[in-house]
Amino acid sequence: METAELASILWLTLKLALVTTLCLLVVGTPIAWWLARTRSRFRDVVASIAALPLILPPTVLGFYLLIALGPSGPGGWLAGLSGGRTLAFTFEGLVIGSVVYSLPFVVQPIRNAFEAFGERPLEVAATLGASPWNAFFTVALPLARPGFLTAAILGFAHTIGEFGVVLMIGGNIPGETRVISVAIYDLVESGDWGAAHLLSAGLVLFSFTVIMVMLRLGSARGEG
Amino acid sequence: MDRIAVAVSGGKGDFRLDMAFDTPANGVSVLFGPSGCGKTTILRCIAGLERMSGHVMVAGQVWQDDSKGVFLPPHHRAAGYVFQEASLFAHLNVRENLEFGRKRRMAQPAQGPSVDEMAGLLGIAHLCNRKPKHLSGGERQRVAIGRALLSAPRLLLMDEPFTGLDRQIKKETIGLFRSAQAAGYSGTLCQP
Asked: What residues in A contact B185, CB-CB < 8 Å?
């Protein structure tokens, strides 16, 4: 494998994980907030739907995403806005799929963080004259910071590690959807074990580092 | 004019509350009653943290009046609230906690004591850069009282504010309410 090709794969993977993580935080925060605060009887229904990607095989998720992103689904309509025909097998489609796939890993830690400090700080903020929005940004978000950190790391790492969904909806298009996990599969299939070793070892090292950092953050919080 | 008129009734499960009172808006009024009779609920209804049917009027302002469909949200009521546990913001230090209410107060910011004056008054000036977790229980409670006073409330609601405070601090805190009232902005309603 050439260096330029390797760089392209690494850059695409990184870009996908970064964009996905940002989208996950934007989408996941309101869901987590609602789940933590609501007394609606639909809470557990929504929580279950948001947690589905945890247990569904990526192929099931990928199959439905393929339909949704394809020419006759909402994704096709969305692509039509910018002159395309489908969101399947595109970078944008991959981002949407990754957001769905990693949602539980982001919603759960943020929801836990919101639930941990309870109603009281928000009540205090209200009696001190803070509007609900103001209290959310000046009290709830800062208090939930550790949860956001965990969520961001998990979402990022989980996106780097996904394979099935990418294969179903992204394929293996260089520069567009060819990320590390798919590239490894491809390299093994074509007998290029040297390059497969390189990428695999890189992912092992990356995953180890992520878990170490999370553990360190956790114990720093416990002591602090 | 300068009265607090409250009537609330409602219930949660087995608990029924139905009470009304009228008391001067200046000075200190105290709610007495056996535990579980609804003292905290009344304070929460006045602050707008809980809603029951009835009316809440403070010094000529209508905070709630069901007959006219008025219910001000808590952040639009000039009510300071000191909770039973100090409930300081863990992510802010003492000074930032004190500033939180002062920045958002409805009265003119120029009126009343500054953060530094309040910290001096409460004997917590030396703690200004500490986070709440490094304070004792009594220190936390004093910061919470100062924070509520700095929001310039027309009415200060206190839910067992002296729990866990020793005699000396109790005496000093009561003196503090007197000077807060002398500064002109606070009536106090508390349960002891």
From this structure: none
